[in-house]
């Protein structure tokens, strides 16, 4: 025997499903969107920073002033996200280097001939050519950590998850109020519709000369028909 689902229960189930799906979509969109936007901003900032350093290091490379180049890279200590920076000469050999903790890039400069921008799971790499009067005279490699971005995204996820839980709780309270004020009349209407269907079926059986089949309906239902 097929179980009949009431109109009120069906509407309540659809409403709860829609609320849960909507909150889940908003949660994923906020977390993923904040991470992607933050990653794009961090990559753009690192690229601009590499361009500025490359322009300022042109004179040091042209005049082979390693001390000036080292002082220039040492200014990166004011950028906590920068983990590693290295200036390469025209022969791709290391000219000056800055390391905050430990090198996050390969030690062999020749192995760093990569595209202009690269993304790894834990840091960004930016490579910027250094132009001189006669063309390319070197390259700047910059490695930027994304740990702050990951922490920020984690906090956003936690705050959004708390907000989603509160939203589910509030929606549950509203649905209970809806059940008491709106769905109760719908349940009565659904019961009336079932009663009319049973009466119509009984009338059809009588008109066909058949004895009516017993229905699991109360006494009041039979008298109403």
Write the layout of secondary structure elements.
Elements (H helix, E strand, L loop, with lengths): L6 H50 L1 H5 L3 H9 L7 E7 L5 E6 L17 E3 L3 E10 L2 E11 L1 H61 L11 H6 L1
Antiparallel strand pairs: 1-2, 1-5, 3-4, 4-5
H and E order:
HHHEEEEEHH
Q: What fold name goes in the CATH topology slot?
A: Beta-Lactamase
**Mean pLDDT over all positions:** 77
SS class: alpha+beta
Identify the CATH class.
Alpha Beta
Question: How much of the polypeptide forms β-strand, as a percent range?
Answer: 15-25%
Gross morphology is rod-shaped
Q: Helical element count?
A: 5
Spatial strand order of the main sheet: 2-1-5-4-3
Distance between the termini: 23 Å
- Helix coverage percent: 55-70%
The CATH homology group name: PAS domain
Number of domains: 1
* CATH A-level architecture: 2-Layer Sandwich
Overall strand count: 5
Give Rg in angstroms. Answer: 35 Å
Largest sheet: 5 strands, antiparallel
Residue ranges: pLDDT <50 for 5 or more in a row? 103-107, 109-120
């Amino acid at each position: 025997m097929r179980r009949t689902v009431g109109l009120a229960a069906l509407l309540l189930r659809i409403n709860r499903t829609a609320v849960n799906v909507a909150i889940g979509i908003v949660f994923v969109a906020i977390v993923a969107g904040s991470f992607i936007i933050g990653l794009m901003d961090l990559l753009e900032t690192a690229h601009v920073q590499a361009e500025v350093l490359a322009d300022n290091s042109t004179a040091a490379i042209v005049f082979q002033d390693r001390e000036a180049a080292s002082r220039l890279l040492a200014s990166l200590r004011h950028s906590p996200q920068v983990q590693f920076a290295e200036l390469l000469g025209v022969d791709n050999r290391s000219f000056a280097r800055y390391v905050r903790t430990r090198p996050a890039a390969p030690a062999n400069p020749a192995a760093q001939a990569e595209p202009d921008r690269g993304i790894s799971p834990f840091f960004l790499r930016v490579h910027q050519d250094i132009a001189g009067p006669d063309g390319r005279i070197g390259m700047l490699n910059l490695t930027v950590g994304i740990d702050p971005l990951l922490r920020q995204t984690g906090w956003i996820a936690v705050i959004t998850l708390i907000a989603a839980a509160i939203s589910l709780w509030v929606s549950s309270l509203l649905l209970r109020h809806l059940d008491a004020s709106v769905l109760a009349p719908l349940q009565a209407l659904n019961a009336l519709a079932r009663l009319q269907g049973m009466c119509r079926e009984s009338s059809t059986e009588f008109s066909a000369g058949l004895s009516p089949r017993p229905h699991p309906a109360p006494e009041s239902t039979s008298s109403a028909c």
